[in-house]
Hints:
The chain is an alpha/beta fold.
Amino acid sequence: MGAKIIAIGNLKGGTGKSTLAVNLACALGSAAKARAVLVDADSQGTAMEWAARGRLPVAVEAMPFEPEANGDGAWLKALNGLAAQNDFVVVDLPPHLGTSIVLALVAADLFVVPVTPSGADIKATTKAIDLLRQARGVRGNGKPGCLLVPSRVDRRTAAGKEIEAVLHDFGEPVAPAVGQRSAHVDAFTAGEWIGTYAPRTSAHDEIQTLTAIIRRSKA
Ligand SMILES: Nc1ncnc2c1ncn2[C@@H]1O[C@H](COP(=O)(O)OP(=O)(O)O)[C@@H](O)[C@H]1O
Ligand SMILES: [Mg+2]
């Protein structure tokens, strides 16, 4: 059994967090007997919108962190409650530094960080890794594990060719890349995950490969 609470985050919008969160939750939950839930912790509600047509094979819970409504205790309790009832909890985090990313790093087994080949993403990732290491320092048990995911990669660009080398410098495991593929954009419009929208395509293969790594991870 691999990671149970999987937090997907980076401190920047547009890195592919929601796309990865939806597809990983659906892929993890599609395996025989596996129960997965997707937590939308971003008040923008991309994952909720994705799920609105009722075509995703997993439940999606809206859980933006709102200080007045759910103090630290309540949010974490809700997250751990979902963990008790599921094999996998995938958390789609907002793109900014805030309470939900801090609490998610306190609870998560694995922090999955999508990074696109761009200087701005690398800068945000430096901050996200700092935060990860602070959480590890507090927890003292080596958790959460980390997986850097080259995201929206276009190998025709110079940055797209170098992304793995750049990510290895962070000293954390680097996953095989998720390519920039129009099927991911169209799957959102259709309200489906890639395994339903474009099965047995490269886009689906890449998600399956990533899912297998997460399922096997010791984090
Ligand atoms: N692998 C991909 N290939 C093509 N488009 C992608 C890919 N991942 C994300 N996108 C697109 O990029 C935009 C931002 O993605 P999203 O997952 O919402 O990022 P975030 O949650 O980090 O803001 C969306 O329009 C989405 O469809
Ligand atoms: Mg998002």
